[in-house]
Amino acid sequence: MTGFPRSPKLTRAGLVLIDPESGAVDRVITLQYAAETLQRSLEVQSIADEPDRSQPLRLTGPAVETLTLEAELDATDQLEKPDEFPEATEAGLFPALSALETMLHPTVAQLERQNAQGSAGSFEVTPAETPLAIFVWSKNRIVPVRLTSLSITEEYFDANLNPIRAKVSLSLRVLSVDDLGFTHRGSGLFMAYLQSKEAQAKKFAGGEITNLGIGGLP
Fold it and tell me: I need a surface site. Which of 5, 71, 81, 147 has the fewest CB within 10 A?
């Protein structure tokens, strides 16, 4: 990182975990270094996918979008400032990595409650609910997601074998109104995300049909 005073401040991507009921922010997970690539895949949902293919141009819902990215975490700078970052001195990257990993696990309290329900002969064991995760990649991309897979490669360790540098690969499924329902807190974020796409698309000037080497459609 350059020390030049006019260097632009880099915007970091990350995840904001909020309570789905109250909307209170539970945790902010900042990706320390911006990923160099963001892979996105979109799969259409259309009537053509159903047995009745008489209306192939009709859509049954928003596209299923998946985001994949890699990021690097490094505690080296924090270890040089133990007064400011005592957790790095004590545990390296364990806190940051654990914050990501716990997005995929029920809490201990939830597991104990499920076990108690099962032991009491409950007809239905209540599934564990996670906080709502919001993926933030600039002001133009703020969208509710579910972390579907996480891969971690720990590269360097301190004297106590705490990881001090790691690479993480995240796969995120965008949660649409189909997943959440219109009344869910995250649906408003998804609709704003989709509306932003539509607004950006209107700015695209497009081309002329002659650019395609034809004078018009047959």
Answer: 5
